[in-house]
Amino acid sequence: MMDASIVILGAGQAAASAAAKLRALGHRGPLTLIGDEPVAPYQRPPLSKAYLLGEMPLERLTLRAEAFWAENDITLRLGQPATAIDRAARCVRIGAEGVPYDRLLIATGARARGLPAAIGGALGKVFTVRTLADVDAMAPAMRSGARVVIVGGGYIGLEAAAVAAKLGLRVTLIEAAPRILGRVASAETAAWFRDLHVRHGVEIREATPIERLLGETEVTGVRLADGTEIAADLVILGIGIAPDVTLAEAAGLAIDNGIACDETGQTSDPAIWAAGDCASFLAGGARIRLESVGNAIDMAEQVAANMIGAPQPYLPKPWFWSDQYDVKLQIAGLNTGHDRVVTRPGAAGVSFWYYADGRLIAVDAANEPRAYMVGKRLIEAGRSADPAQVADPAFDLKGLL
Fold first, then answer.
1. Residue 361: how many CB atoms within 10 A of its CB?
2. Per-residue pLDDT tens for 302-314?
3. In a domain, 149, yes or no
4. Structural domain harbouring 336
5. From CA 332, how far away is CA 37, in angstroms rounded?
6. Does 153 share its domain with 210?
7. Are residues 10 and 85 in the same domain?
8. Alpha-carbon distances, residue 63 vs 11, 66, 249, 338, 349 (angstroms)
């Protein structure tokens, strides 16, 4: 398999990680990345933070130096959206052209969710935060004094709110659910971050569904379900992402909350694999999909190895982060199914420890890197922590190791 022709569909974090890993493992065959965007693979997390704030130039966003691709004989087909996967001919179609493969890795990632055009989703000055083009289009509107309404109180929406507030905009964040971070964090974590944003001047409205966006050609405001109208110079949508499975589904691959893979990353077609945000996989007897940089890198590297060698199961070690104002939130583990949250005050921040049936399963650590490090190591080792010791700020967490 070291001489097989491999095509990677996608040119984001997972795609770049897989390509680099294939060459590092000694793969010698043709290797091609096909990407929709006209730029080389780049980091997404800094887009809506350091890049939008002007603290990180474009050249620092790129994942690899320009010379890397040529030196490793990796062909980049950028700004050339694939139009189909032809499984019978084993090629990826770019219009009338077919790019042949012996093995294909789909790493198409995810797309930001929008609002229907019928309720104003197609108006000007309505932005999502996913690509370099999204943020470049948004930047001119992010001027001090402008009124921005952010729809969605997940991490994407909260990060956008933090940047807007730092730039001097008047920020209103609306969340349809009863509280912010409803799907991804505990009420304790949500309350801590709600207070952080309020202290920075952000108005947060929870349990507030929207009816529609207002305006003729450009957005001028938001009408809420109760009839209230909020004026806006721009609107940022932070209502989640959806796995990009369009080509995979059209090719007849099995789809189940993303492209359905087995524990090695192989799809329902033995010549096709998937990794990153677009892929759902088996772990611990359940089918899951992880949206994170960590998963994109780790899964892509394992799947790359599996494509050219004896397949090994991918064992995720979930970790995430979010930067808001001067707070770095680090998350270890998955909190799904937790029945108890223990709060640990820290010198510079706070951490929240999640338990299920008395077993530690996740930690949210805000400006508490030691709590994150200890919690992550315990979770990865399958060990727990005494809740009473965790709750005692005088107890040295390193004792748990």
1. 20
2. 999 999 998 999 9
3. yes
4. 326-400
5. 31
6. yes
7. yes
8. 11, 9, 29, 36, 31
Partnered with residue 327 across adjacent β-strands are: 324
Give per-residue pLDDT as tens, 97-116: 999 999 999 999 999 999 99
Instruction: List the structure tokens of 11.
Output: 């040119």
- Phi/psi at 124 (5° precision): -65, 155
Report yes or no on 318 lying in a domain. Answer: no
CB crowding 330-360: b at 16 or more within 10 Å, else e? bbbbbbeebeebbebebeebbbbbbbeeeeb
Name every residue whose Cβ is closer than 8 Å to that of residue 330 and which is 6 or more positions away in sequence: 319, 320, 321, 364, 365, 368, 369, 372
User: And the tokens for 199?
Assistant: 């202290």
Cβ neighbours around 211 below 10 Å, total:
15
Which of these, 163, 169, 128, 153, lies nearest to 206 by C-alpha position? 153
78, amino acid identity: L
Prediction pTM value: 0.94
Say if residue 228 is in the same domain as residue 284. Answer: no
Whole-number CA gyration radius for the chain: 22
